[in-house]
Amino acid sequence: MQSFRRPILILLLVNLLVGLLTFRNYGLSWDEPLFYDYADSLRYAYSPREWFSEDFDLEKAYGISGSDHANRGPAYIVLAQPLVSALEAFGADKASAWHLVNFLVFQLGVYLLYRLARRWMSVPAALAAAALFAWQPLLWGHAFINPKDPPFLVFFLGAVCFGFEMIDSDSRKFPKSLALAAFFLGTATSIRVLGPLAGLLVALYALPRFEARKFKRLALYAALSLLVAFALWPYLWEAPLQRFVEVFGFMSDNPTRLQVLFNGQIYRADELPRRYLPVLLGLTLTEPVLPLFSIGVFIAFWKKIKSHSVESRPPTADDLALALWFLIPFAYVLIRKPPMYDGYRHFLFILPPLFLFAGFALEKIFAVAKNGRAVGAIALLLLAPGIYGSIQLHPYEYAYYNSLAGGVGGAFRRYETEYWLTCYKEAVENIDAPGGARLFVKREPYIAQYYAGEGVSIRDYRAEFGSVQRGDFVLVNTRTNEDLKTFKDAPVVTQIGRGGAIFCEIKQIP
User: Fold this and answer.
1) Which of 21, 205, 415, 422 is deepest in the core (most CB within 10 A)?
2) Contact assessment for residue 8 and residue 111, using Cβ atoms and an 8 Å cutoff
3) For residue 489, what are the contacts with CB-CB under 8 A and spacing of at least 6?
4) What pLDDT does 77 receive?
5) How many CA atoms are closer than 13 Å to the CA of 103, on its beta-carbon side?
6) DSSP single-letter state for residue 264
7) Residue 145: which residues within 8 A CB-CB, separation 6 or more?
8) Residue 294 burial by CB count (10 A; 0-12/13-18/19+): exposed, middle or buried?
9) At what angle do helices 137-145 and 123-134 cross, to 10 degrees?
């Protein structure tokens, strides 16, 4: 077993080295500052001293954005916050500390995908699938700046991985995989209410292996998961069932009036066409992913139809569970058309099955190639688009579009690119403005404020529009082409972009 771990350790060490060299390059995203304030405030809920004080009020645990974040499951930030505090104690600024921790958690997801893949395929195929997953520019970028969706992906993946291992365990004692599976499922549930879907996939996997002992494990798995979710979600403490149902209904509807640029048109988030998710999947993953996925699905199910042998392939329930992991949420989006925005970041958790099925295709391709050098060359060729795209876009990898869209330059003005405003960091740090200059920020000025030097006064454009004067500077992003609507003819003094796309720019009022 030790030999199986070495290749994935090499991949993880390479990722860690790159992450340590670059994590300070990433700017705060739209959602981060208030979410991290929520993380700091949550310490109040876990303080025994506060529990026994006369004025204990759980509302204090939700921070200044309680109306927006109280009902958002905080499990990840509860678990990550102590590590972030430790990094801050060693001199890291808050944003960079969170970005590094976020990235480290994503590496756990890379390992879990490899571990799950090794159930069914050789080391080279599993490693290539894990590398293809890890080096997707979309995922690599989100891994740093997104404390919501990649952590949900990781804990959902862990719930499935350890859940399968729990079912397979022959031990009549309390298996370690049961504790791990319950921890990951409970944490996933406390991040997103879709977490229990992972438990349903594990139950489906258990069906062909019917034994009373294993179904007792499932019951214990569910009970322990609920305890973990409850412990990591203070909002539920006062009325667990009522509030969970309330949150489930709210998140299923996800009411928002945000505007989204899609195929050159601006839609409201709740009015997007059904093709939104399929099109973006095709344009934002590197070119090899979907062809490999399609081939892998064919290989997985064709062998089951053609032969009853399961010596080198998992039982049909395995394939079905992996397929439903992707298909259930995908079908939900197509049928129900829930509001979507910021690409498909809320559905990043459906991506692991694509890479697992791609691994089945890679297994076949490597078997045909046979020669070690040929296998390495094929793997490098398949990984090259992601590596090149990440280098070209850094530190905006999540804005990636593949060659079918003409790259990020071809997607510009047609699809959202750098929609989370992380470019504010680079723009503010590179502004050439005299001391005392006023910089009016069109959206989320608190991001610019974090990076502004003492000589620049950050102002809220929307709140103080009437006070903009000649010589003032305006920072505007290109989300939904906002730059074209804001002082369109004013000269641009600073422009941030990559690959032919503009992400944000600073204009000076003439």
Assistant:
1) 422
2) yes
3) none
4) 96
5) 26
6) T
7) 26, 27, 28, 29, 32, 99, 102, 398, 420, 422
8) middle
9) 60
Cis ω for the linkage preceding 137 (within 30 of 0): no
Give the pLDDT confidence score for residue 255 in this predicted structure.
66
Helix (H, G, I), strand (E, B) or coil at 26: coil
Give φ, ψ of 481 to 5 degrees.
55, 35
- Please choose, from the candidates 186, 199, 397, the residue with its C-alpha nearest in 3D space to the C-alpha of residue 284: 397
The predicted structure's pLDDT at residue 312: 45
Residues 145-175: tens digit of each pLDDT: 999 999 999 999 999 999 999 998 877 767 7
Cβ burial 14-33 (10 Å sphere, 16+ → b, else e):
ebeeebeebbeebbbbbbbb
Q: Which residues of the chain have pLDDT under 50?
A: 1-4, 309-315
Which pLDDT does position 311 carry in this prediction?
45
The total number of residues shown for the chain amounts to 510
pLDDT for res 303: 66
Helix (H) or strand (E) holding 501: strand 501-508
Q: Give the position of tokens 């709140």.
A: 463
